[in-house]
Design goal:
Layout (H helix, E strand, L loop, with lengths): L9 H13 L5 E5 L6 H13 L20 H8 L5 E4 L10 H11 L9 E5 L7 H12 L5 E7 L7 H4 L3 E4 L5 H10 L4 H10 L4 H9 L2 H16 L8 H17 L4 H27 L12 H8 L4 H19 L4 H16 L11
Parallel strand pairs: 1-4, 1-5, 2-3, 3-4
Helix pairs in contact: 4-5, 7-8, 7-9, 10-11, 10-12, 11-12, 11-15, 12-13, 12-14, 14-15
Length: 362
């Protein structure tokens, strides 16, 4: 693989390739963009070029920005045992990048490379450094050790300390048009309708779309939307508590089925809940503009339009807001059973005044 093989990130690849050709590589890069855009894949590919002593034209790899793939350094990196490559992120069960991790990277950066011409450090979740860790890392960026390159990966610049951002060369990763994501998914064996939905549900991220495919999010969304429609069909958005709690159990079971660890199950549950938020978003869009709205759940559009005609826009938006609150609680390690039970209890209350002309809650 070469830098330019990362789908949709030709501009980022061109910037890095130009730096490689000129030999003017920054000591620190900040790869910024949503998850699934190829940031980590690009960082690993850049690392392979920087660590390859046999890649052709010096100082960094061949003129196309590609490692040779055959030398001892490339084979070590491929096997995951390269002594001069380090990749770190938020430890499992933690919410922040701790200062101890930054100090470990500093200690390793102070040692001469063992096999390659330089050392490469990839720091994932960089926006989640606590202030102490950021201040510590800033010292490394201000006085970078020779023979080292740092690649930070972050979702955005808004949560990054500006003192850190200003000492990195920022490389932005952008989302792909839905049509291009559909192409990736169709090439991965998905049928047209599911590819259409996943391409839009992943917000232009091919990595997220493929990940969603692997956990069956498209089929889970269909089942969830059907359940929400069935519970709502009789009387606006009414969710009777006993049935709502059945949804709690179903969501928990689907999240567990899609995961191999508790953090993965938590992330899967958040994605399932976002499907619920998209369901209410579709209803709100149809309530506002019945003949013009484009919905995510287009296979259910007629049934959604009929339900939307009996609901107030304000209540539909409030339902989506309550779902997003639950997503945040799950992400903050709240007890998921409590978070889900609270969510559906709130949705049941909102249903009391969801109908046009319905009574307002006291």
């Amino acid at each position: 693989m070469a830098l330019e093989d990362i789908p949709g990130q030709e501009r980022a690849a061109a910037l890095l390739r130009a730096a490689l050709r000129s030999g003017r590589l920054a000591h620190a890069y900040l790869f910024v963009g949503p998850s699934g855009m190829g940031r980590l894949a690009m960082a690993r590919e850049l690392a392979s070029v920087l660590l390859c002593p046999e890649g052709g034209a010096q100082p960094f790899g061949d003129a196309q920005g590609k490692a040779c793939g055959a030398c001892k350094s490339c084979r070590s990196l491929e096997s995951g045992n390269h002594p001069d490559y380090y990749e770190a992120g938020v430890p499992e069960g933690k919410q922040e990048l701790p200062i101890a991790l930054v100090q470990m990277l500093q200690d390793r950066a102070a040692v001469k490379p063992f096999m390659a011409p330089r050392r490469v450090f990839v720091v994932k979740d960089a926006e989640r450094m606590n202030q102490e860790a950021a201040n510590c890392f800033l010292k490394t960026l201000e006085e970078p050790p020779g023979g080292s390159c740092f690649i930070l990966i972050a979702a955005g610049l808004w949560d990054m300390p500006q003192t850190v951002v200003s000492r990195c060369r920022v490389v932005k990763f952008t989302g792909l048009p839905p049509g291009r994501v559909e192409e990736v998914l169709r090439g991965d064996g998905l049928d047209a309708e599911d590819a259409w939905w996943l391409a839009r549900r992943s917000w232009g991220s091919p990595g997220l779309a493929v990940g969603f495919k692997h956990i069956g999010l498209h089929s889970a969304n269909r089942e969830l939307a059907e359940k929400l429609l069935a519970l709502s069909a009789a009387d606006g958005l009414a969710l009777r508590p006993a049935e709502a709690y059945g949804l709690t159990d179903w969501l928990s079971a689907r999240a567990d089925d899609a995961a191999q660890s508790r953090p993965q199950a938590r992330a899967a549950l958040q994605e399932l809940l976002e499907c619920a938020a998209v369901f209410y978003r579709d209803l709100a869009a149809l309530a506002i503009a019945p003949g013009e709205a484009e919905v995510f759940n287009r296979g259910l559009e007629e049934r959604l339009r009929e339900l939307a005609s009996r609901c107030s826009v304000e209540s539909l938006i409030e339902c989506a807001d309550r779902v997003f609150d639950a997503i945040e609680r799950v992400g903050a390690n709240a007890n998921r059973q409590v978070a889900l039970d609270d969510l559906f209890s709130q949705l049941s209350v909102i249903s009391d005044h969801c109908r046009i002309g319905g009574a307002e809650p006291s």
